[in-house]
Amino acid sequence: MHEECGVFGIWSPVKRAVPRDVYLGLYALQHRGQESCGIVVSCDGVFHHYKGDGLVGEVFDRRSLDHLGEGNIAVGHVRYSTTGGKNHNNIQPIVISHMKGNMALCHNGNLVNARSLRAKHELNGGIFHGTADTETIVYTIVSERLKVTATEEAIFRTMQQLQGAYSCTLMTATKLIAFRDPNGFRPLCYGRLPDGAYVVSSESCALDAVGAKLIRDIDPGEIVVFGKEGVVSDRRLCGKAPSLCVFEYIYFARPDSVIEATPVHQARLRAGCFLAKENPVEADVVIGVPDSGIDAALGYSRESGIPYGVGFLKNKYIGRSFIAPSQDMRETAVRIKLNVIAETVRDKRVILIDDSIVRGTTSERIVHLLRDAGAKEVHMRISSPPFRYPCFFGTDVDSRENLIACRLNSVEEIAKEIGADSLAYLSVDAAHRLAGDEGCTFCDGCFTGKYPIDIPEGQGKSKFEQPIREE
Questions:
Q1: What is the pLDDT of residue 326?
Q2: What pTM was computed for the model?
């Protein structure tokens, strides 16, 4: 399963080397997007930007950071494409100049009405350079900005037209603005540095990376402006019941992040605890698939009393297996990425904890690795419910055809296909209790097919990249 994106921004009361702060923040958010990245800096209203394909450490070096110079505002982005492919024009931040100034936007999420909004702008003469829905947000804000005196008012008007998931940072010549869709599908928070600078990030782990103290999450529907007037909040669109993506806790977010007042590590321990209560099995050892399965495995072990063991050694120098573009390469990546510690599993009944099963091919390979290392039994437990439906809000699962839970009729059939002695998933009810008593409500559309908003037809990832077909 693919992640979505990560956004970061900083506003400082004085001119400083803000690109380096953004660079560190993006490094901490690298897990959210490994396809491309970029940074834009405002120095007295003049924008300097640098972006490219690849990881943060590959795109940026000392020379590129020096080229960006100093400033008092900067935004940055790490990307994995959920709408729009590997077109250089899709790399964020999206930078645009209009008659009232400059603007740079970073977007995490996915719109479901991007097609109709884009068509409206194109009919009015808008020219799009990329195929990502982020450009649609930019055009809508600019069109509204020409009618009002402040960018934040243009954002308010734009948000009334957008449908779907968007957690954004936007930079003008004088302000850093953060805004989040009324459903709150994707996380967004802000904090403060000791010198008075404000930092906005998709996750709190990036605030930690630059030494900022977390203040709070930006609420669903909220617009927060950071500028010379301090911090100004517009809450006119707040009040809707939030629908945070439950996979932020299960898989996407780093375990050292805090989302909606709940530490991600604690949520994953809780998932493992729920799994042990709902799906017990006799075994000798509990192991987790690195990295997001480990916390749930610890939770399962604590609740069940079955010892936890380190079952896999992870190669630190390879990206997540989904980055490989072909199935053969994905399977090879699993072999390179994970190696079984045979002493942990040999001649033992093993409970294997992972965060999800999408296609099933990676799970099958991991089960076979354990068998080859001498495991007597392999009982797989998944810290999420079965993936049965596509996601339209920023997770790259946009059809049902490759989902093993749709292709096969029962959990027993899935267990047989992946080679496990037994298989069980977390219940939907338990998934809704991962945040404990914080009152956080979730989007579970990928499990239930029930989405918080209506989904128009034609929402594939490449909806703006369809080839021409002759009649």
A1: 55
A2: 0.90
